[in-house]
Amino acid sequence: MARRKAISPVIATVIIVAVTIAVAIAVAFWMTGIIGLFTGFEQLQITSIIDRDDQQNQQNRGIHVTVRNTGTSTATITDVYINGRPCFVGQQDAACQVNVQNQQNANFPLSIRPGETVTMIIQIIDVQHFGVDIGPGVSLEVKLVTASGKEYPKLIVLQEYTPP
């Protein structure tokens, strides 16, 4: 009768431990990738707000809001509020119109990629809707709302625009 030899229990244990460590490392790299996907965040910063009463260029007239996305994922602005009242941007009964400076076909909702800075021009159509006359010396709260539900308010006092 032929004798069969098997591997020793010590070598079998070493192989099992090595395979377990290799699988654990693979799972750790996989989980790191998944966590990176789900921990992206948006962070908008309103860096400046200027009221421009540009009589020469009607497209440039309005409240210029410069916004920068300092987060790690794209932020989508869905709503604009002035003094707590919605602008209803893109709707038929809109109280204001929002354009993006230096962009021809910028649609609303407006997506801002990480690291990107855009200047939105808010042209107020219905001044009575906001309950205040818009002009120099007036305090306004401009609030941007994103698709994720985050709100980014900024309180400003409008100042006289002086062309450069």
Description of the molecule:
The structure is a single chain. By secondary structure, the chain is an alpha+beta fold. The protein has a domain of 114 residues: Immunoglobulin-like. The protein contains 1 helix and 9 strands, in the order αβββββββββ. Strands 3, 4, 6, 8 and 9 form a 5-stranded antiparallel beta sheet that branches. Strand 3 and strand 4 form a beta hairpin. The radius of gyration is 28 Å and the shape is rod-shaped. 15% of the residues are buried. The mean pLDDT is 82.
- The proportion of residues forming helix, as a percent range, comes to 10-25%
The poorly predicted ranges are none
Secondary structure tally, helices: 1
Major sheet: size, sense and barrel closure? 5 strands, antiparallel
Overall morphology: rod-shaped
The total strand number stands at: 9
Give the H and E element order: HEEEEEEEEE
- Distance linking N and C termini: 103 Å
Helix/strand/pairing class, anyone? alpha+beta
Strand content is: 35-45%
CATH architecture of the domain at 44-157: Sandwich
Q: CATH topology of the domain at 44-157, what is it called?
A: Immunoglobulin-like
Brief summary of the model shown:
This protein is of the alpha+beta class.
Secondary-structure map:
Blueprint: H1 9-38, E1 44-52, E2 62-69, E3 75-82, E4 85-86, E5 96-100, E6 110-112, E7 117-124, E8 139-146, E9 151-157
Antiparallel strand pairs: 1-2, 2-7, 3-4, 3-6, 3-8, 5-7, 8-9
Structural features:
164 residues; alpha+beta; Immunoglobulin-like; five-stranded antiparallel β-sheet; four-stranded antiparallel β-sheet; 9 strands; rod-shaped
